[in-house]
Amino acid sequence: MSTTSQFPVILPAAGIGKRMQSDIPKQYLVILGKTIIEHTITSLLSHPNVSYVVIVLSSNDTIFQTLPLASNPRVKTTLGGKERADSVLAGLQYLSAQEKWVLVHDAARPCLKHDDLSNLLALTKSGETGGILASPVRDTMKRGDSNGTIAHTESRDNLWHALTPQLFPLQQLKSALIEAQQKHVPITDEASAIEFVNQNVLLVEGSASNIKVTKPEDLMLAEFYLSQQANQAHFKDHT
Ligand SMILES: Nc1ccn([C@@H]2O[C@H](COP(=O)(O)OP(=O)(O)OP(=O)(O)O)[C@@H](O)[C@H]2O)c(=O)n1
Ligand SMILES: C[C@](O)(CO)[C@H](O)COP(=O)(O)O
């Protein structure tokens, strides 16, 4: 990917982190001396093909403006909504209609690797079909029933974990999200909106280390991956 193509990123960060059960929204928990959202934004802004990042905040947010990154001219903010999809749509509406492609990435995924983002962005070279980072499931998959017993074993073939970033043409994603919202279809990621309007989404294999910090036990795992990435960068700089 050349350094001349530049893409905006929408970063939904208006969630409360119910499953994390912390006193503050999980994106403001600190790992290795920095909040999770600062790790995420720093990793995005240091990629040569990212133009700027639109952070979608809750109207109750009092923390973001206190972070040094808040005054970075490549960091913009807007207000989100009740569900993640509402926040993403608010972010898309902030963008100029001149933008062709848009990336959407969770604030709560601080361990994104540049190589994975470059592989995803390579889709913009080959056509108009968007795609997502994803990782193949590894375990044997069971479908349970309402009694908590196994109904059957699901085939692992072609089964993937959906990750972010997700990359789509701006207008396609905006109209798919609006249509899903009007029809009250629950949307948990951008790809599901595009699937809802019967359009194709490509899968780009990404690292399983690109975890979403969701539950308390994920904090230690994110710390491990972030320190591994910092060590690798240090090693690169000294060889
Ligand atoms: N109304 C919402 C809900 C979620 N998000 C963002 O979407 C990303 C992924 O969502 P998730 O991990 O589910 O975050 P939360 O909604 O905060 O967590 P929980 O579901 O445990 O409450 C997070 O960066 C979160 O801040 C958002 O911008 N607006
Ligand atoms: C967008 C996402 O991170 C893809 O894995 C995810 O769908 C966010 O919401 P979830 O409720 O944690 O699945």
UniProtKB/TrEMBL annotation:
Protein origin, superkingdom: Bacteria
PROSITE patterns: ISPD (PS01295)
Residues at the site labelled Transition state stabilizer: 19, 26
EC number assigned by the record: 2.7.7.60
Alphabetical list of CDD domains matching this protein: CDP-ME_synthetase
Keywords: Isoprene biosynthesis, Nucleotidyltransferase, Transferase
Feature type site, description Positions MEP for the nucleophilic attack: 156, 212
Pathway of action: Isoprenoid biosynthesis; isopentenyl diphosphate biosynthesis via DXP pathway; isopentenyl diphosphate from 1-deoxy-D-xylulose 5-phosphate: step 2/6
Catalytic activity: 2-C-methyl-D-erythritol 4-phosphate + CTP + H(+) = 4-CDP-2-C-methyl-D-erythritol + diphosphate
A GO term for molecular function: 2-C-methyl-D-erythritol 4-phosphate cytidylyltransferase activity
Functional note: Catalyzes the formation of 4-diphosphocytidyl-2-C-methyl-D-erythritol from CTP and 2-C-methyl-D-erythritol 4-phosphate (MEP).
Family, per entry: Belongs to the IspD/TarI cytidylyltransferase family. IspD subfamily.
Protein name according to UniProt: 2-C-methyl-D-erythritol 4-phosphate cytidylyltransferase
Gene: ispD
